[in-house]
Design goal:
Layout lengths: L5 H6 L4 H8 L4 E17 L3 E8 L6 E11 L2 E10 L17 E8 L3 E8 L2 H7 L23 E8 L6 E8 L15 E11 L2 E11 L12 E10 L4 E10 L20 H4 L3 E13 L2 E12 L12 E11 L4 E11 L13 E12 L1
Length: 367
């Protein structure tokens, strides 16, 4: 459930060389990445405590290759290949794909926008995730705003419009979101995503919509998971504030919500996938202190369904407090504490009403 940190990555300058390469007028390739590891103690009521290494406490560990070529007349080509990994073991993250985070090539024009083809994040994930203040491992924005969590789809076509007076729009469609590789298009799980973003100096506002169309929906489910997200952030210099709301219906549109009832698709609880709704709210704040910042974030997810025993599902809450310290332009030290109610790291809604606490500290190095 780790929320992807694309916005932080761009702010750190790791994606800026794409534009720089094109501006130089010739082809080029950049190697970039992040290695993030720490120590954490996690306790879930009824299950006990676990202490050990934490992979990606602040940001995911990854490496990638990116390049661009200016073809003249405002036209450019770009590509990105990106792979996540676990520094505690050296293994690839999530699955066995070589480039599990990104593998796309794109063609763009200053006046017409950019088209990207390949495995990538959805428009909704990219725009929504930019609102995140605190991306702590499994306790970030994606813990309750699953359409902004760290997930990617295969066979995805994304189009991003040019920026006009601060506005940018994006749309995307996946012919086969999770690689089922069936011949008939309608026999695969297809995904739609759309978003609108406005950015002007310290102000950022986003609106997104995502829908997944399941080819073989589990019995009793609606087969059309979808999510709407609205949010705004503003940097007052002495304080950066972020507010967001989301409505998720019929299961998680990113197939990234766990599988507590054995539906087989990570749609989340069966009651949710069978027509349930989750309304989520998020408030985040970043306060500069010395060479770093204090990060505070709170989110609440309100479900409207009942469990099989007739009990109403309770609200899930996730609260975190942390501090990042800029040891150098590329190296950050961090420490955080998190508390979640009616929530475990495996399930966003726990009928056993468990609570989870986590204390972690670590180091993140960018190259």
């Amino acid at each position: 459930m780790k929320t992807y940190f694309l916005g932080a990555l761009a702010a750190a300058g790791l994606l800026l060389p794409l534009g720089a390469l094109a501006a130089e007028g010739g082809p080029g390739v950049q190697l970039y990445g992040v290695v993030d590891a720490g120590l954490a103690v996690t306790n879930t009521s009824g299950r006990g405590s676990h202490a050990g290494l934490l992979n990606g406490g602040l940001t995911d560990s990854l490496w990638g290759l990116a390049g661009a070529e200016d073809m003249g007349g405002g036209w450019r080509t770009r590509f990105q290949l990106e792979s996540g990994f676990d520094p505690s073991s050296g293994k690839a993250a999530d699955d066995d794909s070589l480039f599990n985070y990104a593998a796309w090539v794109g063609l763009g024009h200053d006046g017409y926008g950019e088209l990207r083809l390949g495995r990538q994040h959805t428009v909704g994930q990219v725009y929504g995730n930019a609102l995140e203040i605190a991306s702590w491992k499994e306790m970030g924005m994606g813990a309750t705003f699953k359409a902004s969590d760290n997930y990617q789809f295969d066979n995805l076509v994304n189009y991003y419009s040019p920026v006009w007076r601060g506005f940018q729009a994006g749309v995307g469609y996946s012919f086969d979101a999770d690689g089922q590789d069936r011949f008939r298009t309608a026999a695969n799980n297809r995904a739609f995503s759309a978003g609108l973003k406005y950015e002007d100096g310290p102000l950022l506002a986003v609106a997104t919509w995502d829908q997944l169309r399941l080819a073989d929906a589990p019995a009793g489910t609606r087969g059309r998971p979808q999510a709407v997200q609205l949010g705004v952030s503003y940097d007052f210099e002495v304080l950066k504030l972020s507010l967001a709301w989301s409505r998720q219906r019929n299961g998680y549109a990113g197939l990234d919500g766990g599988d507590p009832d054995g539906l087989g698709l990570n749609l989340g609880p069966a009651a949710f996938a069978r027509g349930g709704t989750v309304d989520a709210w998020l408030v985040g704040a970043s306060v500069p202190v010395g060479p770093g910042a204090v990060l505070l974030q709170w989110s609440l997810a309100h479900p409207d369904w009942q469990w099989d025993n007739g009990a109403a599902a309770r609200n899930a809450q996730v609260m975190t407090l942390g501090y990042t310290y800029g040891l150098s332009p590329r190296t950050t030290l961090y420490a955080f504490a998190g508390y979640a109610s009616n929530y475990t790291l495996d399930n966003q809604f726990d009928p056993g009403h468990s609570h989870t606490t986590r204390f972690g500290t670590g180091i993140s190095h960018r190259f």
